[in-house]
Specification:
Largest sheet: 10 strands, antiparallel, barrel
Radius of gyration: 17 Å
Strand order of the largest sheet: 1-2-3-4-5-6-7-8-9-10
Number of helices: 3
CATH topology: Lipocalin
CATH class: Mainly Beta
Helix content: 10-25%
CATH architecture: Beta Barrel
Length: about 190
């Protein structure tokens, strides 16, 4: 599997159940979010802008994945804290290997960071991003076409300070080729 095939598997709407452990202060959190993944061609304007920001030749972009999320809160929680929403853009840069290469990421339209990606023989994607003295590593794999699992760790000054595990269920996939007016923006329920 190459990075473009992996990104295509992430397309659609997902529900994510997340558990986060803050190891330094021994605090645990859990939450649920709605996620939307959208594949972008390498020539897309957002990809070109991120490449230019990070001094990478835009013509070397293989593909991109735009991710949006919105935290799902219970009614009683919504009174106490604002709903968290965000967006990330992942861009895979062409390399000699179809299974590894350079990765660019922008989070909530902030300055981008560079890192690497690799896809193992088990078809799990590993992302590694470094920004100043913070290293983020994430592993993403599919238990089935509609069940995705993710684990991540964040290291600061060579000390793991946060770990996260997510299980995500696909709720809908984009309609393959919608007629111009009738189904634009609609989703199909996944086959179980």
């Amino acid at each position: 599997m190459d990075i473009q095939s992996f990104f295509q598997l992430c397309d659609g709407k997902w529900i994510s159940q997340r558990t986060t452990h803050h190891l330094i202060d021994q605090n645990n959190q859990s939450g649920r979010s709605d996620l939307w993944g959208e594949i972008l061609e390498g020539s897309h304007g957002e990809i070109a802008a991120l490449c230019q920001q990070l001094d990478v030749d835009p013509s070397s972009a293989r593909c991109g994945l735009r991710l949006r999320w919105s935290e799902v809160t219970e009614a009683y929680q919504s009174r106490f804290k604002p709903k968290e929403e965000g967006m990330a853009l992942l861009v895979a840069i062409a390399s000699d290997s179809p299974h590894s290469g350079q990765l660019l990421r922008s989070l909530n339209s902030a300055n981008g960071v560079t890192g690497t990606y690799s896809i193992g023989t088990d078809e799990a994607l590993t992302l590694r991003l470094e920004d100043a003295n913070v290293i983020s590593e994430e592993r993403i794999w599919f238990a089935s076409p509609n069940l995705r699992l993710r684990s991540s760790s964040i290291k600061k000054d060579d000390t793991v300070c946060i770990t996260t595990f997510c299980s995500e269920i696909r709720m809908a996939t984009p309609v393959e080729s919608p007629p111009a007016e009738s189904t634009a923006g609609q989703f199909n329920a996944p086959a179980v």
